[in-house]
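For the sake of clarity, the format in which proteins appear in this thesis is described at this point. The record quoted next illustrates the convention:

___
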Amino acid sequence: MRVKGTLTKWDDDKGFGFIKPLTPGKDVFVHINSFQTKSKRPILNQLVTYTLIKDQQGRLCAQQATHAGERLNKLTEKYSKPRRKSKNETSMGISLYVVCLFLTTLAWLVLSGKVSFHFFAGYVLLSLVTVMFYGWDKRSAQTGRWRIPESTLHLLALIGGWPGAVWAQQRFRHKSKKLSFRIQLWLMIFTNISAFSWFFIPQTSDFIKSMF
């Protein structure tokens, strides 16, 4: 059944908001991917028509949403063609690959006796702390509470928590669309890996020195 409502909340950076139905009822969550026309950005207080569904957690969500005056095309691109991965999703996939590769390499160095186990434990512990900070900041963003400064998140990544930062971005969908933040995070990752390789892997520093 199609339902009408007003878009009372919308965060264009994150791509989601809430619809207040015209009939009595709870506000309904809506994501940008749920709109039939992706090129037309939603606007606050505009009338929206949608299909009411429930997600896996039983929460009310809008699906196949259309803007005022727009007809529902039942054969929309979303259902007629497989969805292509966005550049952001591809970037996050590469980031997770880097995390797996780094931790696997670090574990091998520990097992081979070339690096102390304390370094592996340190990365894991810092990553867990970083995940907690990202989760707190995500929750704060949703509830309008005090936010954790981006400089703090970058500092955690720099000192070794970047595997957790990458995982948290993917898991919480937090700070994953802000290009400037992602660029700075990659700088922290590169700096940390470079410093670790230079100071704690003798073969790496010897190889670099031999080139100059």
Q: What stands out?
A: The mean pLDDT is 80.
